[in-house]
Specification:
Layout: E1 3-11, H1 15-33, E2 36-41, H2 46-52, H3 58-65, E3 69-74, H4 89-99, E4 104-110, H5 123-126, E5 131-137, E6 147-152, E7 155-160, H6 166-181, E8 186-191, H7 197-210, E9 217-222, H8 223-232, E10 239-242, H9 244-257, E11 265-269, E12 275-279, H10 296-308, H11 313-327, E13 330-331, E14 341-342, H12 345-355
Parallel strand pairs: 1-2, 1-3, 3-12, 5-10, 8-9, 8-10, 13-14
Antiparallel strand pairs: 4-5, 4-11, 6-7, 11-12
Helix pairs in contact: 1-10, 1-11, 1-12, 6-7, 8-9, 10-11, 11-12
Bound molecules: nicotinamide-adenine-dinucleotide (NAD).
The site of nicotinamide-adenine-dinucleotide has 22 residues, from α4.
Length: 356
């Protein structure tokens, strides 16, 4: 029987309560699909600053590296707002992504049928099965490029650099094409090749990689047009692959199409098996400790972990189906509508387990 070692980074705010529900569901899936899971907790973010003085202790990196995968709740909160930038909880987040070599960020934007009305987009535009996967490059580009201050025409000025190597573009393109092969076999590569040299290199490289995937249809879109098309006709997309900064913006836009922030999962992959799985939302300090947070984004992140890191496809599908079924009757306060039964964080976890 397979046993998986999972490191838990529960983090701050609602992090611990949502991760507790996710591991309850994972344990249930393990029982049903005949595998076992052992957990090890480590500190990240504000809780790590309180305990050790830094947001990413070396021990956390070591534990994550020694595990099959990592589940993260969320980090941050007003308590740590006066920390210097390099010692804020969010610095721990960037640090762990770098330390684990997580260069690919996967953000699905899926509408669960019963939640269609939570989308700000009209029903006929979303259709019945909107299912977009955004693949964002996570460790390169302008967020990691050289930057500085200088003087221009006697004025204080600042500059940042967008740079990509062919190797960086190739590896993220391969992640996107591999995913497309398991989906609808369509990739949209998003760039700004009409203006940026780095985008022209991006486009040339994606076209070259596409030759290895003859079954996948590739098209290219400028980022401004893509931002528009996502709300105009989201059904046209299957897999979108793009740079760090464009992906940051487009994935937030796409996530709003799907409705509530409490529903959206994500995965960050290293190219090997090890991945980091987390909800896209933050630590929600305004509702922490009240048993009202929606744990479904974290539960759906666990489903992604089963699919992309642990090769437990059937368990992943079962969790997603259980979530869809539970939503037909039960809602946490953030997605509550008349006619449904309102439940808390823990109850939502119990309901998904019972459905499984
Ligand atoms: P947030 O995502 O924490 O909260 C935004 C709003 O959504 C709040 O009203 C919150 O109550 C609600 N919300 C979020 N998750 C929810 C859930 N699961 N169920 C129900 N409601 C939910 O964003 P914010 O308020 O801008 O940031 C709060 C803290 O989180 C900050 O310190 C920020 O830096 C941090 N943050 C961390 C991450 C991360 O760990 N990956 C991501 C974003 C923000």
């Amino acid at each position: 029987m397979n046993n998986y070692k999972i490191t838990l980074l529960k983090g701050d705010g609602i992090g611990p309560e949502i991760v507790d529900q996710a591991i309850k569901v994972l344990d249930k899936a393990a029982e049903k699909f005949n595998f076992t899971v052992t957990y090890d907790e480590a500190l990240l973010g504000g809780c790590a600053i309180d305990a050790t003085g830094v947001p990413l202790p070396a021990e956390t990196v070591a534990k994550c590296k020694a595990s099959d995968s990592v589940i993260l709740g969320a980090v941050g909160g007003p308590k740590w707002d006066d920390q210097p930038g390099s010692n804020r909880p969010e610095a721990g987040l960037l640090g762990i992504r770098g330390a684990l070599g997580l260069f690919a960020n996967l953000r699905p934007s899926v509408i669960f049928g019963p939640l269609k009305s939570a989308s700000p987009i009209k029903d006929d535009i979303i259709g019945d099965n909107m299912d977009i996967m955004i693949v964002r490059e996570l460790t390169g580009g302008i967020y990691f490029g050289e930057r500085g201050r200088k003087e221009v025409d006697g004025q204080p000025a600042a500059w940042d650099t967008e740079q990509y190597t062919v190797a960086e573009v190739e590896r993220i393109a391969r992640v996107a094409f591999d995913l497309a092969m398991k989906r609808d076999k369509r990739v949209t590569s998003v760039d700004k090749a009409n203006v940026l040299e780095s985008s022209r290199l991006w486009r040339e490289t994606v076209i070259r990689v596409a030759k290895d995937y003859p079954e996948v249809t590739l098209n290219h879109m400028y980022v401004d047009n893509c931002a528009m098309q996502l709300v105009r006709n989201p059904k046209q997309f299957d897999v979108i692959v793009t740079s760090n900064i464009f992906g940051d913006i487009l994935s937030d836009e796409a996530s709003m199409i799907a409705g509530s922030i409490g529903m959206l999962a994500s995965a960050s992959l290293s190219g090997g098996k090890l991945g980091l799985y987390e909800p896209i939302h933050g630590s929600a300090p305004d509702i922490a400790g009240q048993n009202i947070a929606n744990p479904l984004a974290t539960i759906l992140s666990v489903a992604m972990m089963l699919r992309y890191s642990l090769d437990q496809q059937a368990a992943a599908e079962a969790i997603e189906a259980a979530v869809a079924k539970v939503l037909e009757q039960y809602r946490t306060p953030d997605i509550y509508e008349d006619g449904f039964t309102k439940v808390g964080c823990k109850e939502m976890g119990d309901l998904v387990c019972a459905q499984l």
